[in-house]
Write a structure and sequence with these properties.
alpha/beta, globular, six-stranded mixed beta sheet, 441 residues, five-stranded parallel beta sheet, 18 strands
């Protein structure tokens, strides 16, 4: 087994002990699910059911409207009680299908095994993955079928499964690798066949020894799959950093992983692909780590998509005290929430509740030019300059300093002794630069 890492990065305090030893538990069946038609990067889906319709578990209810999109399926059987805008974790109201569960979980007739992997053609695998609505479950939610359909001129020779899970609190991927290692490997083999690639890799941080052992056992003597033990640091799970650690290749500025001949998928995505092939079940549930000092009983739960956060938190005993901050995802790249009525989405890897002291962000002071943000930037950018230009509305200069290459990992903000708003200001610069480009077209 090989060991690898990348330049830069940070070592935030880890709090995985809350849940790293907690086995996956099926969450309580929701009485109602709220399924937004936007659960992926790309074009939103169009509802194909209406109020009053009776639907079955696994039935398609949202049709993709674009190449970069993924269908959405009912996560319970029951009656559609509303098709209307509802609050989304990104803070907007998004058109959603609301289903009142009948408690029966009646399966849709289309839910059936899709055949042996050996007998499926690459095209058929891509179709199964696409119809199942599989997206990147690490949080990015990029439609998986699109990643499996690179342009002919892009030669892919490496498929990498991301089991790094470098966010300090999350353990969903960790438990998936321990408890569903066989399906992780099965999903990787399906990806290899879909892309006609011979070599597969699985990268796992070296603080997950039980996951490494479980996956090694599942791989067995397959010489086409290598496991990499990755140095534990953040953001080891970012695509570009993972590709460099495993293959030594750099994704060019402005490029995509396919420009380095690689496709990266999350280990949870691999399991979703295994489910879609083995039992024909589309993506209707996912593993969510519910954790933080404010949660009474942190857990790793298998949750139906569309379940309100409140029900999930209640199943974990509720709040031990008033939360200072609620985050969907991890503390480094997650999304702050102002309501617990929002639903679990395909990209909800975690629900994190911090107390008021943990959530407190000190006021920024002037930059002291210490250079720490430069040293830790995994992309080799100069965050202090990009941020300064952004704060002075000099977005053209920010672009000259490659603001668009920033992966918004938050390492620079974390390390900054002056607590400067580096990532938020770089994010503003990226938005303004992209808006200018769109306007120029």
């Amino acid at each position: 087994m090989k060991q690898a890492t990348f330049h830069g990065g940070i070592h935030p305090s880890y709090f995985k002990e809350f849940t790293s030893h907690k086995k996956l538990i099926q969450s309580n069946p929701p009485s109602q699910v709220i399924l937004p038609m936007q659960q992926h990067i790309g074009a939103p889906c169009e509802p194909i059911v209406k109020k009053g319709d009776v639907v079955k578990l696994g039935q398609k209810i949202g049709e993709p409207k674009g190449f970069v999109s993924a269908p959405i399926h009912a996560s319970v059987s029951g009656k559609v009680v509303a098709v209307e805008p509802r609050l989304h974790p990104d803070g907007r109201k998004v058109l959603s299908v609301v289903i009142e569960s009948d408690g029966l979980d009646t399966l849709h007739e289309d839910i059936k095994p899709q055949g042996n992997l050996e007998s499926l053609s690459p095209e058929k695998i891509r179709d199964i993955v696409g119809e199942a609505g599989v997206v990147g479950l690490g949080g990015a939610t990029f439609p998986t079928k699109v990643k499996l359909s690179p342009p002919p001129e892009k030669k892919i020779d490496a498929v990498i499964l991301n089991g790094a899970e470098c966010e300090p609190y999350l353990t969903a991927d960790h438990r998936i690798m321990v408890e569903r290692a066989e399906d992780v490997v099965y999903g990787l083999k399906a990806l290899l066949k879909a892309l006609d690639v011979q070599k597969g890799y699985i990268g796992i941080e070296d603080n997950k020894l039980d996951a490494i052992e479980a996956v090694k056992k599942a791989v067995g003597n397959d010489a086409n799959i290598e496991i990499y033990s990755l140095h534990t640091k953040y953001p080891q799970g970012a695509e570009k950093q993972l590709i460099y650690a495993v293959t030594g290749r750099e994704v060019p500025s402005g490029g995509l992983p396919m420009d380095a001949g690689a496709v990266v998928q999350n280990v949870g995505t691999a399991v979703a692909i295994a489910d879609a092939i083995k039992i024909g079940m589309p993506l209707v549930e996912r593993v969510v780590t519910v954790t933080g000092s404010v949660i009474k009983e942190p857990q790793n739960l298998l949750v139906r998509l569309g379940t309100p956060f409140k029900e999930i938190i209640d199943q974990c005993g509720g709040f031990a005290k008033n939360p200072g901050k609620l985050i969907m995802g991890g503390p480094m790249m997650g999304m702050a929430q102002f309501s617990i009525e929002v639903p679990v989405l395909k990209g909800t890897s975690g629900i994190l509740a911090l107390d008021e002291e943990e959530a407190n962000v000190p006021d920024p002071t002037p930059c002291i030019r210490c250079g720490k943000c430069v040293n830790v930037c995994p992309i080799n950018l100069l965050p202090l300059y990009i941020s300064a230009y952004s704060l002075n509305d000099a977005f053209d200069k920010a672009e000259e300093y490659h603001a668009l290459d920033c992966i918004e990992c938050g390492s620079c903000s974390f390390i900054c002794p002056s607590r400067r708003p580096l990532v938020p200001s770089i994010r503003v610069a990226k938005r303004e630069i992209l808006a200018k480009k769109r306007k120029a077209k």
